[in-house]
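Hi F.,

I've been meaning to write this up properly since the lab meeting, where we talked about keeping a consistent format for the predictions we share between groups. The idea is simple: the sequence comes first, exactly as it goes in, then the structure tokens exactly as they come out, then a line or two of notes. No screenshots and no reformatting. I'm using this chain as the first example so we have something concrete to point to.
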Amino acid sequence: MNLTVVMITHQMEVVRDACDRVAVLESGKVVEEGLVSDIFAHPQSDVTKDFLSNLTNVKTSMVRWSEDGGHYTLRFRGNKTGEPIISKVTKEVGAVFNIRAAGVQRVNDEELGVMVTDIGPDKDIAKKSVELLRELGVIVEETKEAN
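Output, unedited:
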């Protein structure tokens, strides 16, 4: 039986656990839509990023130990969650990562990892690190303060 149920919620835990597709609205307009795993892995709108940053369910296993910093959000998808990518970037570029929060969750049978971090020791190394992270398949979001 094919069944479509329309659910309206601010709780992204419910979306993650019960839905295959999602549309995110802001001020009554759709700002993004697609597969839940795609939206969770690569949110485009500020409202979606805000919703995802507030996940509180135990299944999320996101631990934040510092409210300071965190100029980069790294998103790892699928088998990338089990690869030593941070170590590789540190070794190849000389980057220093200050991890502010991290966690892995399962969305529609796919693992999604999120890490909030600062990258240093300087802007040049940070830029090279971001380039290499993206080459290695990591989705990197920079906050305005990082630029």
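Notes:
The first strand starts at residue 21 and ends at 26.
The chain has one domain: 12-146.

If this format works for you, I'll send the rest the same way.

G.
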